[in-house]
Design a protein that fits this description.
Helices cover 28% and strands 38% of the residues. It is α+β, with helices and mostly antiparallel strands.
Length: 373
Amino acid sequence: MTKIFSKYIFLAGLCALACSNEKKTAENFMVEVPVMQLQARDTVVELQYVADIHAQSYVELRARQGGMLEAILVDEGQMVKAGQPLFRLTSTELQAEVSSAKAAVHLAEAELKKAKLELQRVKGLVENKVVAATEMELADAEVQINKAKLEDAEAALKTAESQLSYTTLKAPFSGRINRFALKMGAMVQPGELISTMSDASSIFAYFNISEKEYLKNRANKGSGGVVLPKEVQLVLADGSVYPFTGTVEATESEFDANTGDLALRARFPNPDGLLKHRSTGQVRLKLKQVDVFLIPQKAVQELQDKYYVYVVPKSQLAEMRTFKPIARVGTYYVVSEGLNAGETIVAEGLQSVREGAKVVVQTSTGSATKPAN
């Protein structure tokens, strides 16, 4: 037991000695590289946000009345005008109901006319004191009853006519009809989807910014910036920039409880029909950034989607520091967090630097506030 314990003590001692030697080796390792001092400045950066693109008007065409799809009056992909008939369902039974309702109205009108004539007759008899005054009251009540019957019949006729009108689906606005979900002769249930249509003469690009970004840009307003720019660009799925500029029109009044984001909407003209409903892209904003650092890409290491620089403190022993860039401006990273003004970082030659190495200043490459042209 004593031998085993002694063995563990010996191994621990070797490990401590190895670690100590490794630390001393790192400290004794010297590298001569250029450095730069971080200075805060203001700049304008382009930020991109994933956009959800929608036509300015989009609707699902669903049947309000059941029946067989009797006629398709347009073709898939066709441009249609507001009010144009698109689909027609069988309507024989509903036409019969409309005819019956019209007959009920005519009957009610005749009954009302008869009651009014009776009221006039009784009125003359009362004036000549042939019958009692109560007879005229009864005749007047009969007129009111028949008026109510006529109103009820007219309401039933309107309902029947509305039901009949639902057998013809019309375009709610001018736009393009999309793919048909059903074919002619199919049985359609009330509420069943027949097709969709959209008006993409203008499109809406919805995108989200974080609460942190919103508050930061609102604070920048006092420094001459704006909360959000009015004009924005759209970067398409192939990386090209959409030729028309968009305008931010609407902002939601509250942040999403799950993501903490604020939703915004930008409108883009679409005269050539290039953009389609549910296209993909990114909205590009130009935002003023206050008190940020511009760090050359050659001073940065990228490892597994993380960004590092070597900070050189007063001890001159290199310390690896991680940061998250806001964006890129030319060959520079724009940084607002993770680094501090006045700190010195290794400007280039990172391949010869390692954690804990002693940095000897070779020359100054200038300030981190001066991006390359």
